[in-house]
Amino acid sequence: MAEFICLFGKIVIKQPKKSPLFLRMIVLVFAMVCGLYMCSVCLKQSSLQSSQLVPTPVDSHSSHHVITRIHYPKPQTFSRAECGHNPVRFFAILSMQRSGSGWFETLLNSHDNVSSNEEIFSVLDRRKNVSSIVKTLDRVYNLDWFTSASKNECSAAVGFKWMLNQGLLANHEEIVDYFNRRGVSAIFLFRRNPLRRMVSVLANSYDRYAKLLNGTHKSHVHSPEEADALSRYKPVINSTSLIHDLRETESLAAKALEYFNTTRHMVVFYEDLITNQTRLKQVQEFLNIPVKDLSSRQVKIHRGDLSVHIKNWEDINKTLNGTEYEKFLRADY
Ligand SMILES: *[C@@H]1O[C@H](CO)[C@@H](O)[C@H](O)[C@H]1NC(C)=O
Ligand SMILES: *[C@@H]1O[C@H](CO)[C@@H](O)[C@H](O)[C@H]1NC(C)=O
Ligand SMILES: *[C@@H]1O[C@H](CO)[C@@H](O)[C@H](O)[C@H]1NC(C)=O
Ligand SMILES: *[C@@H]1O[C@H](CO)[C@@H](O)[C@H](O)[C@H]1NC(C)=O
Ligand SMILES: *[C@@H]1O[C@H](CO)[C@@H](O)[C@H](O)[C@H]1NC(C)=O
Ligand SMILES: *[C@@H]1O[C@H](CO)[C@@H](O)[C@H](O)[C@H]1NC(C)=O
Ligand SMILES: *[C@@H]1O[C@H](CO)[C@@H](O)[C@H](O)[C@H]1NC(C)=O
Ligand SMILES: *[C@@H]1O[C@H](CO)[C@@H](O)[C@H](O)[C@H]1NC(C)=O
Asked: Name one GO molecular function term (predicted).
């Protein structure tokens, strides 16, 4: 009996002591739940940036493999849904105005899994300083940038085109650093024939004011009739500065290649894309996307012999005769 009372007493006495223990347990459980939650937030954060290193062939002709990064972006504006498990490659087309990058981009965008978001940095505000450039890049590569080219959830490669004079060379150190840090692959797109590019530049800037197509300025056309209408205008090329201007263009391209030589990159020439289907296939391999037949509705504006497209042809022909640039007089495309 005494025992029982004692036992009972014990129980009774213990009761208030058990209460703080119980509270402590609750605190412990709460702390554990908190910890787990914080961990999961951390994991989420890190998966926002998640990327992994995988070997990919750069060039189908070489057996060398370089390390490139694949990414699993978590856009803030939508869910990648069933394609959330597909990796995404980051790229940028680095080029100059009137080098065929518009056409090249429509070819890439005809691929189900490519989003190339056009000339994002043509807007001055986005390239005002390095921080606005980086902010813009982050949004593009997180798939939160919207243009008509956005494929959203099933994009396997995302990028845009960037002209060398749109803050790219001016901020090259920081941009190269960004490309290497985030695994952005560069596709250089140049023209072998800068004389033809010059014709296109002059004609396009004339049309900006003349608006030859029913009062609308067009940089790209979709029919032979439109192409003919635009190419009826023949620009006069300044023969005094011609050689100097051609050199400038070449040295700009060389400079860009030198600045970006540590990034993962490939160089594509517009003329090769036109004449050789293999090139476009190699671009797709470079981007690590399924190789498909790509198409564009764009029609080339200045076709055929260059002599019919330049008003002061005699003069230009004479100026380049016997120089290293003579070959550009005759080359197609
Ligand atoms: C960069 O430019 C943006 C405006 O485009 C401005 O708000 C920001 O303060 C600038 N940053 C620096 C570091 O100059
Ligand atoms: C490409 O897009 C299609 C849907 O448009 C999707 O089913 C497929 O998984 C994507 N492929 C890759 C490699 O992301
Ligand atoms: C201009 O507009 C007319 C009528 O809308 C159309 O028939 C014609 O093809 C257009 N011309 C060009 C060069 O686009
Ligand atoms: C042609 O280039 C020369 C040298 O740069 C320049 O002095 C001249 O003004 C230019 N002519 C025209 C018509 O722009
Ligand atoms: C990149 O170019 C610089 C300057 O010409 C040169 O010193 C460097 O070795 C090059 N790096 C690579 C990886 O080619
Ligand atoms: C097409 O390009 C590939 C790779 O760049 C090259 O090996 C091949 O010889 C080219 N074909 C022609 C017909 O130029
Ligand atoms: C260009 O000049 C060369 C002589 O230097 C001449 O033989 C050739 O016919 C000229 N080409 C054209 C298309 O006028
Ligand atoms: C082109 O250059 C050659 C020498 O390189 C010269 O004999 C010829 O007369 C030049 N033609 C013209 C049209 O200037």
From this structure: sulfotransferase activity
Contact predicate 105/99, CB 8 Å:
no
Whole-number Å distance, alpha carbon 56 to ligand 1 midpoint, is 37
* Tens digit of each residue's pLDDT (9 = 90 or more) over 291-333: 999 988 888 888 888 888 998 999 999 999 999 999 999 877 6
Domain boundary assignment for the chain: 53-192+242-300
Any idea what DSSP says for residue 164? I
With 0.85 as the threshold, say if the pTM is over it.
no
Instruction: Measure 126 CA to ligand 1 centroid, in angstroms.
Output: 10
Domain 53-192+242-300, what fold?
Answer: Rossmann fold (3.40.50)
316 CA to middle of ligand 7, Å?
A: 10
Residue 213 CB less than 6 A away from ligand 3:
yes
Question: How many residues are there in the chain?
Answer: 333
The residues near 24 (Cβ < 8 Å, ≥ 6 apart) are none
Q: What does DSSP say about strands 157-159 and 161-163: parallel, antiparallel, or unpaired? A: unpaired
pLDDT tens string 145-198: 877 777 777 888 999 999 999 999 999 999 999 999 999 999 999 999 999 999
Write out the DSSP string of 246-302.
HHHHHHHHHHHHHHTTTS-EEEEEHHHHHH-HHHHHHHHHHTT----------B-SS
